[in-house]
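Narrative of activities, Objective 1.

The group set out to show that a structural description can be obtained from nothing but a protein's sequence at a throughput compatible with the screening campaign. Below is one input-output pair from the validation batch, recorded exactly as produced.
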Amino acid sequence: MNGTSYLEQYARAILSGKITAGRRIKQQMRHLLDKIEHPEKYEPYIFDPAVADHHIEFIERFCKQSQGRRGEPLTLELFQKARLEAIFGFVDKNTGYRQYNEVLIIEGRKNGKTTETAAIELDMLLNDGAGAPEIYNIATRLEQAKKGFVECWNMQRNSTAIRKLVRKRQNDLFCAVNLGFIKPLAADTNGLDGLNAQMVVIDELAAIKNRDIYDLMKQSMGAGTRPQPLLFCISTNGFVRGGIFDDQYKYACNILDGKAENVHFLSFIYELDDREEWTDPAAWIKANPGLGTIKKVSFLRECVQKAKDDPAFLPTVLVKDFNFPENRSSAWLQWQHIHNDFEADLEKLHLRYGVGGFDAADSVDLNAAVALGMIPGDPHIYARAMFWLPEDVLAAQTTDGNRRERDEAPYLLWERQGLLRSYPGSKVDKHVFLDWFRELRDDDDFYIIYIAYDPWHIDDTLLREFKQEFGERCMIPVRQGSLTLSAPMKELKADLAAGRIVHNNNPVLQMCLTNTEVLADTNGNIKPIKGIDLTQRIDGTIALICAYIALINHYDDLQAVI
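Output recorded for this entry:
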């Protein structure tokens, strides 16, 4: 290494521009280099590259290639060595234990993450000094968890030295010397609460649709007896929006931006800084640190060209090669339309008048209501939303031990956060909509003057009650066909793309917008649909469209009273 650590070499190359990098990697390298150069600011943690290089040397000496040049030594690239030095090299000077117990790595596909992760797992099994280390590959389904495990197994079979110490049993790789093992586990496996993990690997975090499994792993490591466990998450971006990946990504960015503090959390986010950079070969390395060495430039060039020729392939390239958030190619909206960086304190704005819309489920599904308000001189449209599920639906997961929530969405978390409400029994009474709009009026002084709804789901009795409460002319029936919905949907999409709709990134509403696809007729008129996966809820989208129709149909009336 000739006196200068790999981390310092990499950080200085990044910050000098010798290696092209995105903003998030520059932020992290600047921070890590400052920790090395000014350790007094970060007491009691110091940088000890010898500790880290102990792990690097093990990997390069004993871990062998299982693909391509099978059996040859695994040679790590500079960016990989720098990351390993950051993960293992910062230690508490009093105890010698690692500073970082959670790592998030986001990088484009084909940058060697599966091979690198398998090598780290074997290193943690044999070379971390832990007694009976338990190492788990975790995924939503066992088939996914086995992918990383199989790579460890293949690497073990190609290394004579490791094969002498580690043997394959029916469900794990076992080391008789220290009684440790590597094992794949799925979200629905019994006994996840009782783990005492030395390392947990979540490969492709973006594929996990709810955060329950992540929370369990995080809590089990904190509650165990391990002095320096490691939660290792590595992933490309994905098409699942509003899940644990987006939460962890936002958390990592908040730490880098100084908005949050966690001295035990370390992230490496390789991504484009701007969506349009996908056509610029000079920017490709920002999301692909192994470009030209591990990942072939020709492969990426072919993918980019296909995306230019076939727009349906573009979302895949943006997400998987450049880590830019997107939805499926068939989705109504792009993620950049759904996510709005502008958020507002609705209590301080004090919305006085607005319009509403709601979507009532047939039976046990998600129910949604949206209220839209404006204030004088402000072009933004501010959205408030509420959702309901039957109490029996939410309780079912707790009672039957199923860790995969209904629709694979974190409804229980959203209920705790006040974003969703449960209704006693097995069905939601449609009076919840009436009660919520009353609540906005009576508790928040927010008067809803028009309410749009799908007449298919509302009986005459409830309709009379709405009119008695909010006025004879307040209710606006909206038929759910393309002739009625097409023009408003196109206008709403334009307002969402312009950032005019401020919904404070409500995760339930975002989930519904993300799930929404469109069906077009021969005249180009569109209407919202769920697509192939009927568990993908779009009720919030329907409620928003209804409210938006009320807004555009009675815009002058609203402007007159605000």
